[in-house]
Design goal:
By secondary structure, this protein is α+β, with helices and mostly antiparallel strands. It has one domain: Electron Transport, Fmn-binding Protein, Chain A (Pnp Oxidase, Chain A, Roll), CATH 2.30.110. The protein is built from three helices and eleven strands; from the N terminus they run αββββαββαβββββ. The longest helix has 14 residues.
Length: 168
């Protein structure tokens, strides 16, 4: 992954607090829900209810998809990302504490609340395996797809489109 693409993806993650998280239901249909998140680089953390359908889905099948973007006033202003990865509960105390600090900096309005109890609201770590960064300022429909393996981020493809007379 080029530093430009990585920086763009991290910037999108840093600028938002809400993501759509899609999990795989037992009947094969996807389930998409909106959750708050915090990130450490490309690693995403979120809390979910232990009794929720999404937690049950993730425990059965850790594969997830995430989408993050903002509303826009002009089509060529669309910027966002989607990713596929694995979601797993954070079980190590040191990682839980570090990620909780990152989360509380992102959500200072919860400073007076007690820290979520993992027995009721486990923290998930989402480690992407494929990231697609969307930047329509480079042309309508432009995305860069990057596959992540063993911590080595490398480009897989850049999808280029010629729409509305704009070549990219």
């Amino acid at each position: 992954m080029t530093s430009e693409v990585r920086d763009f993806a991290v910037r999108i993650l840093d600028q938002h607090r809400i993501m759509t998280l899609a999990t795989n239901r037992p009947d094969g249909w996807p389930q998409a829900t909106v959750v708050g998140y915090a990130n450490d680089g490309l690693t995403i953390y979120c809390f979910v209810a232990r009794l929720s359908q999404k937690y049950s889905n993730i425990i059965r099948d850790s594969r997830v998809s995430v989408a993050i973007a903002s509303d826009f006033s002009q089509p060529l202003e669309i910027k966002g990302l989607s990713l596929a990865g694995k979601a797993v509960p954070v079980t190590q105390t040191a990682e839980f504490n570090r990620a909780s600090e990152i989360f509380m900096k992102r959500y200072p309005e919860y400073a007076d609340w007690p820290r979520p109890n993992p027995a009721f609201a486990p923290m998930l770590r989402i480690q992407p395996t494929v990231v697609s960064v969307l930047d329509y300022s480079k042309g309508f429909g432009h995305s860069d797809l990057v596959k992540i393996e063993d911590g080595d981020l490398r480009p897989v493809s850049a999808q280029r489109h010629r729409w509305f007379g704009r070549a990219t």
